[in-house]
Amino acid sequence: MTPSPLDALHDVLPPEQVHWWPLSLPMWALILTVILSLFAVSVFAYRRWQFGAAKREALKLSTQCQDNPLELHNLLKRLTKHYYGSQATSQSTANWCKTLNRLSQVKFQETDIVSLYHPTPRADLQPKLVAAIKTYKIKERLDV
Fold it and tell me: What is the DSSP string of 78-90?
């Protein structure tokens, strides 16, 4: 009987087991880039959410005090002070009306603002003030 030629192959070693996912350097770089991008996007989203917290609070408070126009006006003043500084809120009535007209889509007259401080404020100001709080722009430039 002739010997099998496969019997001479005893010194050949079988290959090692390949890992389930061999990672190369570009793959590690891609994973790291994706993780860092997700982190940056989440930080950006969180900071944007935090930036809008004052407006969300003003919207919540405006539903509680819809029958008091002076309190709604104070909410607008507080929003403006928070986002644009106290210099924007300490203007004359004419400039304050211009600022409100620019920051909201509601058009105010000087007589509207002055009537807030009368013993009986006008009743038609309440919807205007609530609409101004809802449409208040928090990223508008005032110094341009």
Answer: HHHHHHH-HHHHS
Query: Could you give the CA distance from residue 132 to residue 103 in angstroms, rounded to a whole number?
Result: 8
SS3 114: helix
Q: What is the pLDDT of residues 13-61, one digit of tens each?
A: 777 777 777 788 999 999 999 999 999 999 999 999 999 999 999 999 9
- DSSP line for 4-21: PGGGGGTTPPPPPPPPSS
CA distance 97 to 76: 12
Nearest-angstrom CA–CA distance, 96 and 77: 10
How far is residue 108's CA from residue 111's CA, in Å, rounded to a whole number?
8
